[in-house]
Amino acid sequence: MMKIGSKLYSILNFKCPQCHQGDFFVSHPYNFRTIGELHSNCKECGLKFSKEPGFYFGAMYVSYAIGIAIFIGIISANWILNLNASLLQILFVVGAVLIFGTPFLFHLSKIIWANFFFSYKVKD
Ligand SMILES: [Zn+2]
């Protein structure tokens, strides 16, 4: 389903958006010493991950969209599963998911942002 060459492969495996082989981040999301840190260049293809200073500020928009999607997903789950949770309970669950998911979502938004600007290229 998720083959090398699709943007989803790069996003879900946190791999270089151009070659899909080199690691994008220095470490996994829950290593708090290096949270969100990228390699400057891909170790496999040499792609420079940052096009300009402040390039990844745009990832905030992606992060915002993911947060809204999580909120809508939890409200929909409450409605579909007929849980009858109050708005306060829903907000508590959304808050907990966002707080504990922040490191992962931070990485996810950066790799999605990078995939807007870099495309897969087969290595020569
Ligand atoms: Zn690469």
Question: What are its keywords?
Answer:
binds zinc ion, 124 residues
Total beta strand runs: 0
The overall average pLDDT, rounded, is 94
What is the strand content?
Answer: under 5%
Helix % is: 40-55%
Report the principal-axis shape. Answer: elongated
Bound molecules: zinc ion
Give the count of helical stretches: 3
Q: Describe the biggest sheet?
A: none
**Which regions contain 5 or more consecutive residues with pLDDT less than 50?**
none
Gyration radius (Cα, Å) is 17 Å
Summing up helix and strand content along with how strands pair, one would put the structural category as mainly alpha
- Oligomeric composition of the shown chains: single chain
N-to-C series of helices and strands = HHH
Q: State the end-to-end distance.
A: 25 Å
Overview of this protein structure:
- The chain is built from three helices and no strands.
- With 124 residues, the chain is an all-alpha fold.
- The two termini are 25 Å apart.
- The protein has helices spanning 7-13, 59-80, 87-117.
- 48% of the residues lie in helices and 0% in strands.
- Helix 2 packs across helix 3 (87-117).
- The site of zinc ion has 8 residues, from loops.
Lay out the secondary structure.
Elements: H1 7-13, H2 59-80, H3 87-117
The chain binds zinc ion.
